[in-house]
Amino acid sequence: MATHELSEADALKQTILKDYPRLGPDSRFRFRCHSGLDCFNRCCADVNIVLTPYDVVRLRRRLSLGSTEFMVEHTVRPFTKEQKIPVLLLKMRDDEAKTCPFVTAQGCSVYADRPWACRMYPVGVASSQTRTRAGEEFYFVLQEDHCHGHGGAAEPEGRAGCECGRGGVGTPAALPTGRRQSAEPPSGDREWSIAEWMDDQGVADYDAFGELFKEVNLHPMLLDGPPLEPRKMDLYFMACYDLDRFRRFVFESRFLQTFDLAADHVEQMRTDDEALLRFGLDWLRFALFAEPAVKVNPKVLEAKRQALEAQKR
Ligand code: SF4
Ligand code: SF4
């Protein structure tokens, strides 16, 4: 899949929904990725790695970069006219192969903090659910010709796998566009259940933030409404990804007078990116969709009420 070609990702999504076996957490598959394979590192080039907010928290901390610096150096924001959900991609190198900036001859140089999509590969999550629409959600094992780590076909469970609630941040980012990569063989040439694989890959923390991210990304006003206007788009990228800028916005404006926040929560957000991100994802539902996900200071509400009364007179 060529970098930035999200239409190809959409086509892949349709193929998966139509043709791939529906897997559940107990479905089993064989897979082993290691440096002895002839495909080693081949998958870490010319690929769309969709970054979640928690991916950026982990990666920029690992690289000792500010969030703005990370965004400028390592990300791109593809945009198509039909696109409803904003997307942030890992920027590939500007070389012929479009290699990932973090791949080395020994494998992934950010392995402990690699993105969710890279952890999950070759397992993916497909979902047609939204916050207001029931839909199907299932796991699948992506079979790509260039990947020689597969040891056998996945075994689907008895019925379409809608029972799982885990795995990622919603439809577009749930496609397994990333790669699992390590200089060391993983736990051996073995059969995995989907649940064992996810546990081995350490996706639980990512999934917890993914659930909060879904509350924004799968919001009906985003999915069914007009595209976000530029100001709201800027707020989206700031609160989801550019936490240094969001922190300045919170602490260096009238923000803390506007919202009713506990003092210890405010102090935590001063230094803790995870706490700030959790709050930011809630606040976005207020800022983008006017949902009461954060509490406005009663004095501010009263002042607004009085101003409206004065206008009417
Ligand atoms: S596994 Fe590492 S090197 Fe490979 S694409 Fe992901 S971040 Fe890049
Ligand atoms: S993920 Fe697949 S293509 Fe990539 S190195 Fe492992 S086995 Fe090879």
Mean pLDDT: 84
The number of distinct helices, counting runs of at least 4 residues, comes to 14
Largest sheet features: 3 strands, antiparallel
Strand order of the largest sheet: 8-1-9
Distance between the termini: 62 Å
Report on the structure:
The structure is a single chain. The chain is mainly alpha-helical. It folds into 2 domains: 6-217, no CATH class; 228-312, no CATH class. It is 42% helix and 10% strand. It is built from 14 helices and 9 strands. It has helices at 6-19, 53-62, 67-74, 116-120, 171-174, 194-200, 204-217, 220-224, 230-240, 243-251, 255-258, 263-271, 273-289, 298-312, and strands spanning 28-31, 75-76, 89-90, 103-104, 107-108, 123-127, 137-141, 150-155, 190-193. The strands form 4 sheets. A 3-stranded antiparallel beta sheet has the order 8-1-9. It has a two-stranded antiparallel sheet with strand order 2-3. α12 packs across α13 (273-289). It starts with 5 loop residues before the first helix and ends with a helix. Mean pLDDT is 84; it is low at 152-188.
Strand-helix topology:
Blueprint: H1 6-19, E1 28-31, H2 53-62, H3 67-74, E2 75-76, E3 89-90, E4 103-104, E5 107-108, H4 116-120, E6 123-127, E7 137-141, E8 150-155, H5 171-174, E9 190-193, H6 194-200, H7 204-217, H8 220-224, H9 230-240, H10 243-251, H11 255-258, H12 263-271, H13 273-289, H14 298-312
Helix pairs in contact: 7-13, 9-13, 12-13
This protein binds iron/sulfur cluster (SF4) (2 copies).
